[in-house]
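Question (not urgent): is this output format expected?
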Amino acid sequence: MRRVFILFLLLSASAISRAQDSKLIEIEKTDITANKHFKSDKASFFGFKLGMGIKTAEKHWGTLPQFIAKYDNLTHDGTLRYYLYDKNEAGEQKNCVAYLIWNKGDTALAQISFFPDAEPYLQGNTKKLLTFEAIDVYSDLYKHFLGKATKTAITLDVPDIHLRHKTFYFHKHGIEICEQHDEKDHRVVFAIVPVKETP
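Got this back:
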Protein backbone atom coordinates (compact mmCIF):
# COMPACT_ATOMS: atom_id res chain seq x y z
CA MET A 1 0.00 0.00 0.00
CA ARG A 2 2.85 2.37 0.86
CA ARG A 3 4.41 1.83 -2.59
CA VAL A 4 1.08 2.54 -4.28
CA PHE A 5 0.73 5.77 -2.29
CA ILE A 6 4.25 6.92 -3.20
CA LEU A 7 3.58 6.14 -6.87
CA PHE A 8 0.34 8.16 -6.63
CA LEU A 9 2.25 11.13 -5.21
CA LEU A 10 4.86 10.97 -7.97
CA LEU A 11 2.25 10.78 -10.70
CA SER A 12 0.33 13.66 -9.14
CA ALA A 13 3.45 15.83 -8.97
CA SER A 14 4.19 15.04 -12.63
CA ALA A 15 0.63 15.93 -13.63
CA ILE A 16 0.81 19.21 -11.73
CA SER A 17 4.11 20.07 -13.40
CA ARG A 18 2.63 19.39 -16.86
CA ALA A 19 -0.42 21.46 -16.01
CA GLN A 20 1.76 24.37 -14.92
CA ASP A 21 3.81 24.16 -18.13
CA SER A 22 0.60 24.10 -20.19
CA LYS A 23 -0.24 27.52 -18.76
CA LEU A 24 3.01 29.02 -19.99
CA ILE A 25 2.73 32.01 -22.29
CA GLU A 26 4.62 31.09 -25.45
CA ILE A 27 6.32 34.29 -26.54
CA GLU A 28 6.69 33.07 -30.12
CA LYS A 29 2.90 32.63 -30.34
CA THR A 30 1.52 35.36 -28.07
CA ASP A 31 1.58 39.15 -27.98
CA ILE A 32 2.71 39.49 -24.36
CA THR A 33 2.03 43.24 -24.39
CA ALA A 34 -1.71 42.53 -24.59
CA ASN A 35 -1.54 41.29 -21.01
CA LYS A 36 -0.69 44.11 -18.59
CA HIS A 37 -0.22 41.48 -15.85
CA PHE A 38 2.44 39.57 -17.80
CA LYS A 39 5.12 37.96 -15.65
CA SER A 40 8.27 36.35 -17.01
CA ASP A 41 8.03 33.26 -14.79
CA LYS A 42 4.95 32.23 -16.78
CA ALA A 43 6.65 32.63 -20.17
CA SER A 44 8.65 30.48 -22.55
CA PHE A 45 10.37 30.95 -25.88
CA PHE A 46 10.33 27.83 -28.07
CA GLY A 47 10.29 25.80 -24.85
CA PHE A 48 13.09 27.65 -23.06
CA LYS A 49 11.93 29.09 -19.76
CA LEU A 50 13.49 30.73 -16.74
CA GLY A 51 14.64 28.24 -14.14
CA MET A 52 15.44 25.57 -16.76
CA GLY A 53 18.55 23.56 -15.95
CA ILE A 54 21.47 23.54 -18.36
CA LYS A 55 21.23 19.77 -18.97
CA THR A 56 17.53 20.09 -19.77
CA ALA A 57 18.26 23.02 -22.10
CA GLU A 58 20.96 21.06 -23.91
CA LYS A 59 18.54 18.22 -24.55
CA HIS A 60 15.81 20.65 -25.58
CA TRP A 61 17.70 22.61 -28.22
CA GLY A 62 18.55 19.27 -29.81
CA THR A 63 14.82 18.96 -30.57
CA LEU A 64 14.66 22.32 -32.37
CA PRO A 65 15.87 21.79 -35.93
CA GLN A 66 15.37 25.47 -36.81
CA PHE A 67 17.99 26.65 -34.28
CA ILE A 68 21.67 26.23 -33.49
CA ALA A 69 22.99 26.84 -29.95
CA LYS A 70 26.58 28.01 -29.62
CA TYR A 71 28.57 28.35 -26.41
CA ASP A 72 29.94 31.84 -25.73
CA ASN A 73 33.57 31.17 -24.87
CA LEU A 74 34.46 34.86 -24.52
CA THR A 75 32.90 35.31 -21.08
CA HIS A 76 35.19 34.99 -18.07
CA ASP A 77 32.86 35.97 -15.21
CA GLY A 78 31.77 32.47 -14.32
CA THR A 79 28.43 32.71 -16.09
CA LEU A 80 27.40 30.12 -18.66
CA ARG A 81 26.07 31.63 -21.87
CA TYR A 82 24.76 30.31 -25.16
CA TYR A 83 23.78 32.15 -28.33
CA LEU A 84 20.73 30.86 -30.17
CA TYR A 85 20.94 31.21 -33.96
CA ASP A 86 18.31 30.46 -36.56
CA LYS A 87 19.15 28.80 -39.89
CA ASN A 88 18.93 29.69 -43.54
CA GLU A 89 17.29 27.45 -46.15
CA ALA A 90 20.50 25.46 -46.48
CA GLY A 91 20.44 24.68 -42.76
CA GLU A 92 23.40 26.94 -42.03
CA GLN A 93 23.77 29.37 -39.16
CA LYS A 94 22.01 32.65 -39.96
CA ASN A 95 21.01 35.31 -37.39
CA CYS A 96 21.56 35.52 -33.65
CA VAL A 97 18.06 35.51 -32.19
CA ALA A 98 18.53 35.09 -28.45
CA TYR A 99 21.04 34.68 -25.64
CA LEU A 100 20.63 32.23 -22.77
CA ILE A 101 22.41 33.00 -19.49
CA TRP A 102 23.02 30.90 -16.37
CA ASN A 103 24.59 32.78 -13.45
CA LYS A 104 27.81 31.67 -11.79
CA GLY A 105 27.22 28.72 -9.51
CA ASP A 106 23.56 28.42 -10.47
CA THR A 107 21.98 25.71 -12.59
CA ALA A 108 18.74 27.62 -13.30
CA LEU A 109 18.35 29.68 -16.50
CA ALA A 110 18.49 33.28 -15.27
CA GLN A 111 17.94 35.34 -18.41
CA ILE A 112 16.73 35.08 -21.99
CA SER A 113 17.80 38.07 -24.07
CA PHE A 114 16.19 38.90 -27.41
CA PHE A 115 18.10 40.58 -30.21
CA PRO A 116 16.68 42.52 -33.19
CA ASP A 117 16.81 39.39 -35.36
CA ALA A 118 14.27 37.79 -33.00
CA GLU A 119 11.62 40.12 -34.42
CA PRO A 120 10.21 37.58 -36.95
CA TYR A 121 9.56 35.19 -34.05
CA LEU A 122 7.60 37.70 -31.97
CA GLN A 123 3.93 38.54 -32.19
CA GLY A 124 2.06 41.86 -32.38
CA ASN A 125 3.40 44.67 -30.24
CA THR A 126 5.91 42.38 -28.57
CA LYS A 127 8.08 43.33 -31.55
CA LYS A 128 8.08 46.92 -30.23
CA LEU A 129 10.10 45.80 -27.20
CA LEU A 130 13.00 45.82 -29.68
CA THR A 131 12.35 49.44 -30.67
CA PHE A 132 12.83 52.84 -29.07
CA GLU A 133 9.14 52.86 -28.16
CA ALA A 134 10.15 50.59 -25.29
CA ILE A 135 12.09 53.42 -23.64
CA ASP A 136 9.84 56.29 -24.70
CA VAL A 137 7.76 57.29 -21.66
CA TYR A 138 5.17 58.84 -24.00
CA SER A 139 4.63 55.73 -26.13
CA ASP A 140 1.51 53.58 -25.76
CA LEU A 141 3.76 50.58 -25.12
CA TYR A 142 5.38 52.31 -22.18
CA LYS A 143 2.21 53.81 -20.76
CA HIS A 144 -0.16 50.86 -21.19
CA PHE A 145 2.09 47.83 -20.80
CA LEU A 146 5.51 48.43 -19.31
CA GLY A 147 4.58 51.19 -16.88
CA LYS A 148 7.18 53.23 -15.04
CA ALA A 149 10.59 51.58 -14.83
CA THR A 150 11.51 50.33 -11.36
CA LYS A 151 14.97 51.77 -11.93
CA THR A 152 17.47 52.61 -14.66
CA ALA A 153 21.22 52.17 -14.66
CA ILE A 154 24.26 52.56 -16.88
CA THR A 155 25.33 48.95 -17.13
CA LEU A 156 28.27 49.37 -19.50
CA ASP A 157 30.34 52.44 -20.28
CA VAL A 158 33.57 52.35 -22.30
CA PRO A 159 34.14 55.94 -23.53
CA ASP A 160 37.29 55.09 -25.52
CA ILE A 161 35.26 53.04 -27.99
CA HIS A 162 31.97 54.94 -27.53
CA LEU A 163 30.29 51.88 -26.04
CA ARG A 164 27.44 52.51 -23.62
CA HIS A 165 24.48 50.50 -22.35
CA LYS A 166 21.59 51.92 -20.35
CA THR A 167 19.20 49.39 -18.83
CA PHE A 168 15.60 49.96 -17.79
CA TYR A 169 14.29 47.50 -15.21
CA PHE A 170 10.61 46.55 -15.01
CA HIS A 171 10.60 44.26 -11.99
CA LYS A 172 6.86 43.55 -11.90
CA HIS A 173 7.02 42.01 -15.38
CA GLY A 174 10.50 40.50 -15.13
CA ILE A 175 11.55 42.51 -18.19
CA GLU A 176 14.71 44.49 -18.84
CA ILE A 177 15.10 46.87 -21.77
CA CYS A 178 18.63 47.81 -22.78
CA GLU A 179 19.51 50.79 -24.97
CA GLN A 180 22.85 50.07 -26.60
CA HIS A 181 25.21 52.57 -28.26
CA ASP A 182 28.47 51.91 -30.02
CA GLU A 183 30.43 53.53 -32.83
CA LYS A 184 28.34 51.87 -35.53
CA ASP A 185 24.96 51.15 -34.00
CA HIS A 186 22.21 52.39 -31.69
CA ARG A 187 19.61 49.78 -30.84
CA VAL A 188 17.26 48.39 -28.22
CA VAL A 189 17.17 44.80 -26.97
CA PHE A 190 15.11 43.21 -24.24
CA ALA A 191 15.32 40.30 -21.85
CA ILE A 192 13.11 38.32 -19.53
CA VAL A 193 14.51 37.73 -16.04
CA PRO A 194 12.97 36.57 -12.75
CA VAL A 195 10.20 38.80 -11.43
CA LYS A 196 11.04 40.94 -8.41
CA GLU A 197 8.21 42.03 -6.20
CA THR A 198 8.37 45.74 -5.38
CA PRO A 199 6.71 47.55 -2.47
